[in-house]
Amino acid sequence: MNKKFISVIMAAILTVSVAAVSAGAAEVETEKSGGATGTFKFDMGNWDHDHKDQISFYIWAKNADGTDTKYGSTNGWVDSNNWGSKKTYGTAVEGEDGIVESYEIEFLDGYDTFCIVYDPASGIQTYNSILTENAIGDTCRCLDEMIENPEDSDKQAIVLGFDNAGDCGPQLVITSTGNIVGNVKAANENGAVTVAEYVYKSINDEGTGSGMDKNGAEKITADKLANAVNAFGTSADDVWAQYESFKGREGYELYDAKEAFAKKLINPTSAQNESSSEAGTSSTNSTTSTTSTTSKSSTSTTSKSTTTGGATASTAAATDGGATETGDARGVAAFATVLVGAAAAVFATRKKIED
Q1: In this structure, what are the phi and psi dihedrals at residue 159, rounded to the nearest 5 degrees?
Q2: Using an 8 Å Cβ cutoff, are 178 and 198 in contact?
Q3: pLDDT tens, position by position, 7-44
Q4: Distances (CA, A) of 122 to 48, 103, 117, 288, 316
């Protein structure tokens, strides 16, 4: 009788434990699910409506640290850049003159999404626009505003505005000439990474100074860099930490050549300490030399002593903005609690049997 009672208790405990672990696993799975999915529309306005069947929605998504970029298409996200591909064309909305609907977009967790609307036939395109889930079901159109093309300073692009999605708009970027344009910062963007990329791309291949835009303008100066650091809410130390992370990575083969000039330009705490140390060493050496000369003139023997202040690097760790995936331990904790209670119940029952 008593053995049967214990078996019933243990079976009940096992059932509750499995349920607790399953609930915890279900919560973790929910947290990993993707974002919303849907389309938005573009009002062509005064664009040539004869081109309505070939309006391209060039859409891309980038993760927080910029290491992964995906490109939108009628087949979903793809890994290769598909600018101008027919797979990016929207669909003319029947009965609505000049209204074109995008293909379906899935908003990915931890990624920022961007869009350029482009007419391949005429070459007209809009400026980079931030897309959020609020764009789904909304309509966008060209505004009476032009912005410097981020990749080609000779060109300008039209600002894209949404009727209702206030968090969608011209992306905040650093152009090829080092200018700051746009006003909407991507939600997941790591500002330190963006500015570090700007520094790397703007230094000439020899690593001796700023590269030059095709119009003869310096791509980077101390003032332009300061503006970028301020606009993206970062710091010299964080930018330098991200810049150092480029060493050995694919696409950064000129890192060694550019490193010294980049460090001088960014001027992180470690570089400032090194400069102070060098100044201290020079001053000490000068004093030692004077002392030695004086000692010789007075015919007394004096030992030289040179003290060099050591530079202490104090570089702040950069925040990459990426989410760290962690498991939910609540199910395991619940399981442990149940087991402790079960042990107590069994012990009490066994005690009763023995009595």
Answers
A1: -75, 135
A2: yes
A3: 444 444 434 333 333 333 332 222 333 579 999 999 99
A4: 8, 21, 12, 74, 48
